[in-house]
Amino acid sequence: MMKAPGLRLYAMLYLLVLYAPILVLPLFAFNDASIVAFPLAGFTTKWFGEMWQDPNLGIALRNSLIIALSTATLATVLGIFAARSSVRYQWPGKPIVMGAIMLPLVLPEMIVAMALLVILLSLGVPLSIFTIIMGHVLICMPFAVAILTSAFQSLDRSFEEAAMDLGETPWSTFRLIVLPLVMPGILSSFLITFTISIDEFIISNFLGSGRPILSVYIFGQFRFPAKVPAMLALGTILVCFSILLLIIAEYFRRRGVARIGGKDTGGFL
User: Fold this and answer.
1) Within a 13 Å sphere around the CA of 243, how many CA atoms are in the beta-carbon half?
2) pLDDT grade for 78, boundaries at 50, 70 and 90
3) Dihedral sign computed on CA atoms, order 173, 75, 61, 45
4) Residue 77: closest CA among 198, 180, 173, 190
5) Average pLDDT over residues 94-108
6) What is the pLDDT of residues 114-125, one digit of tens each?
7) CA-based angle 189:58:223, to the nearest 5?
8) What is the rounded CA–CA span in Å between residue 148 and residue 2?
9) Backbone angles phi, psi at 35, to 5 degrees
10) Is 38 left (phi over 0), alpha (psi -120 to 50) or beta?
11) For residue 121, with 0-12 CB atoms within 10 Å meaning exposed, 13-18 middle and 19 or more buried, which class applies?
């Protein structure tokens, strides 16, 4: 195989530009200075303590967890139905419907948020946590469908046929055979959509009507220079938490592929 040192160098520079800001984040979170600048003043953990002193953070975190858990549950359940229908059955208009479900992947979130805001206001729906959940489900559905479609496609249909030959109904076959086999994919979908929801800012800002949501709260705190180090500490915690969820989700995805004897071809998408 021919070596490509130029391509390797490009990949290294790409990863450096992509992840350097994230690597710098914890440096200033533990820096003993209120000004975010080099050189570093020293090591401290006081910003993590100061972060929790703001009561609005607790409210924003609680709201974000409610939204993220609700979004992950709804997106995963709806994704199961959509992915199962797409893989197992043929019905009129399926390409159009599945394309519409995946459309938010390529649409700018700003456009989606503005369209949802206009529709909700024209219908007289008051902006609330419920409207944020609706927007997050719309954004997260393509990721859930992509993960679950892969899980259902890797499933050997002979398992279902054998169960039905032994007297099981289609529903009991789905509940007792199919769901346990694709459960790692379901867990992966839940964790990925949870992570996307808790980090989502544009939809939350447009549809939240000023309610304390974690992403919106962090954005608002950056208007005050004295709050920036504490927000960097919070950002460090969120980055570590997101990476942990992604690692767990990837573990379940690979476990699911291995469980049904499939071939692992890479990551989620």
Assistant:
1) 9
2) very high
3) positive
4) 190
5) 85
6) 989 999 889 888
7) 95
8) 36
9) -100, 130
10) beta
11) exposed
Distance CA 246, CA 259 (A): 20
Q: Distance between CA atoms of 42 and 26, rounded to whole angstroms?
A: 13
Residue with tokens 């969120």: 238
DSSP structure string for 171-206: HHHIIIIIHHHHHHHHHHHHHHHHHHHHH--HHHHH
47-259: which CATH topology?
Answer: MetI-like fold (1.10.3720)
Rounded CA-CA distance 222/239 in Å is 17
Detail the DSSP E strand segments found in 108-232.
none
* pLDDT surpasses 80 at 266: no
CA 5 to chain centre: 34
For 165-175, write each residue's pLDDT tens digit.
677 777 777 77
Quote the crossing angle between the two packed helices 214-221 and 228-259, to the nearest 10°.
150
* pLDDT cut 90: percent of the chain above it: 11
Residue (of 44, 12, 261, 74) closest to 155 by Cα position? 261
Question: What pLDDT score was predicted for residue 141?
Answer: 92
Domain definitions of the chain by residue range: 47-259
- Assess whether the previous peptide bond of 39 is cis (omega < 30° from 0): yes
Per-residue tokens: 149: 């479609």
Distance CA 180, CA 63 (A): 31
pLDDT at position 268: 46
DSSP 3-state of 32? coil
Would you place residue 140 in the very low, low, confident or very high pLDDT band (cuts 50, 70, 90)? very high
Q: What is the amino acid identity at position 164? A: M
